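Narrative of activities, Objective 1.

The group set out to show that a structural description can be obtained from nothing but a protein's sequence at a throughput compatible with the screening campaign. Below is one input-output pair from the validation batch, recorded exactly as produced.
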Amino acid sequence: MEGTASFDLAREFRRLVGDAGHHSIHDLNQLEDNTKLRLYSLLVPAKIYDLLGIDRETFSNSDGERVVEVKAPPRETFAIIEVREHPGDQDCVFFLEIEDTAFFKIDINFLIVNDPRSPRFNTDVDEAGRRTKFATVRRNIPEEVRAMEAGLAPGQVRRGLRVFKDFVPLARDFVAAMGQDMVVAEPLAYNNAIIFESYGFNYIRGRRKMEEIHAGFQPGGELHARLDGSTPFRLPGMEKTVRGRAWAIHDGILGEPWRGIEMYRAREPANVCTFPGWVY
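Output recorded for this entry:
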């Protein structure tokens, strides 16, 4: 399956941009708008197009509404791809922001996938309607509790669509077509890092921290002791699952913000696992 995806994407990439070197997002952003739309839309998994009934030629839904948008200003080093079920919807079904790094690699800044037919949890705004910015400036505890009890992970406002397995080969082959050898990502939460591991990502920095977190959640560990029921996100037993650990870390159980983790996916997958035998 990945070989087929690679062949098709590489061929379409060459058809759109030719054989001239386009080794950065900034280079690609110099192309004309329709070419950029078709090029960056290659990063959207087929499942998204099929689910929403999007025509791949017009990028419109069955109502004739244009629902795929690309923001890639010529002067900038980033590109944003947004896919909605209908124009004006609050949430994208698929949102991707990629950017050139200072070391001439491609960084996945944000990847957000929402099931538009699933319930929404307002974890992205507080009770006064102010943005929480992924809980870095404020939180909406009641909504977070509801989201957690519904099986969501930190940062999610809706259930996902499980398309990361489809996205990884697209991202890998897209950067390969650019002449690059890896894609870089900073996981927004602990659960993202574990999922990235399972799809062949390795660590640029932060592996030791991830191993220390795993050790801390073992019986007798410092983090395990802090699962004392003092908040809904620190219940005994949460150390047993990726999602449970993620919520505890989101709640500040580390004693410091979640940061300092950077990962990469090379052409060949890595074999890294900092949570052996994990259950999501």
